[in-house]
Amino acid sequence: MSAICDLIDPAEHRRGAFIVLEGLDRSGKSTQAKLMEQRFVELNKPVKGMRFPDRTTPIGQMIDGYLKSKVEMEDHAIHLLFSANRWEAVAKIKALVAQGTTVIADRFFHSGVVYSAAKGNPALNYKWARAPEIGLPRPDMVVFLDLNPEETARRGGWGAEKYENGEMQMRVRQLFRDLGKKDIGDWSGEKEVIVLDAGGGIEEVAEAIWELVRPRVEAVERGERGSLKTVF
Ligand code: Z5A
Ligand code: MG
User: Fold this and answer.
1) SS3 179
2) Percent of the chain having pLDDT more than 70?
């Protein structure tokens, strides 16, 4: 028995990591997610990029209509659709990670909680907003690309969709920065968000992200982080 075990390379049975990039609109999430993906490819490590909202699914198309102001939706209803859009991807994320593929997500549940809470609707507070996220896979690392909304607004293509206004962006930024300070029950997921200055050039930011992500991925590869946790 032990002879057989000796023949099995434990590294082959390691799970992949689950890494999330968060940030304001136009903060560079998609650009950086792609660059990170390339690093994995260059290192010959299996990787899969995902993005939320995933506008390709029927639920994602409803979200797209809302963001483009084609349809109106009640705040709770759109919040639950954003969450459902993550839930419909859970089986895929878990399967990929279990087979050793690292998943890089361009936004995940922190966006869901923060953007809805930032609307300031007293009936949709932070605690309510995070309830539908309970049970989702919990990322191994969440990096918030922090940038002044005035700077993101100067980047092309800003202002066409819902939430793309200065006031909302300021509130979202503040909420993301405050996540680590919040004391809401025993949910420690927020405290894991790493706020990174994303004001540098594309390559500079990519390097800073990789410096954070690489050791965490290596820890996952060594089996030090155990199995993928869930949000509680
Ligand atoms: N939302 C929500 O309410 N609830 C949820 O649960 C979820 C999301 C998941 C759409 O999100 C909206 O959905 C969003 C949150 C809400 N709110 N709004 N408004 P999205 O992810 O589909 O789209 P987005 O984040 O709003 O925008 P984006 O265009 O995808 O931005 P980005 O990915 O962060 O940026 P980018 O495409 O990488 O870069 C933007 C431009 O800047 C581009 O021209 C780049 O070449 C340039 N760029 C990138 N990095 C740099 C640097 N370092 N320097 C200079 N220029 C740069
Ligand atoms: Mg993007």
Assistant:
1) helix
2) 88
Q: Specify whether the CB–CB gap between 40 and 16 falls below 8 A.
A: no
Atom of ligand 1 nearest to the CA of 201: 53
Q: Is the dihedral of CA 187, 88, 20, 80 positive or negative?
A: negative
Residue 101 lies in a domain: yes
Query: Is residue 130 in contact with ligand 1, taking CB distance under 6 Å?
Result: no
Q: Does residue 138 form part of some domain?
A: yes
| Residue-range definition of the domain harbouring residue 197 | 15-221
Fill in the amino acid letter for 3.
A
Long-range contacts of 41-48 (CB under 8 A, 24+ apart): 45/102, 45/217, 46/16, 46/99, 46/100, 46/101, 46/102, 47/16, 47/101, 47/102, 47/103, 47/104, 48/96, 48/101, 48/102, 48/103, 48/104
**Residue 226 is assigned to a structural domain of this protein:** no
Integer Cα distance of 127 and 131 in angstroms: 7
Q: How many domains does the chain have?
A: 1
Minimum CA distance residue for ligand 1 atom 2? 112
Ligand 1 atom 22 nearest Cα: 53
CA distance 194 to 209: 10
Atom number, ligand 1, closest to the C-alpha of residue 200: 53
pTM as predicted: 0.94
10-58 residue pLDDT tens: 555 799 999 999 999 999 999 999 999 999 999 999 999 999 999 999 9
List Cβ neighbours of 124 (8 Å cut-off, separation of 6 or more).
75, 76, 79, 116, 117
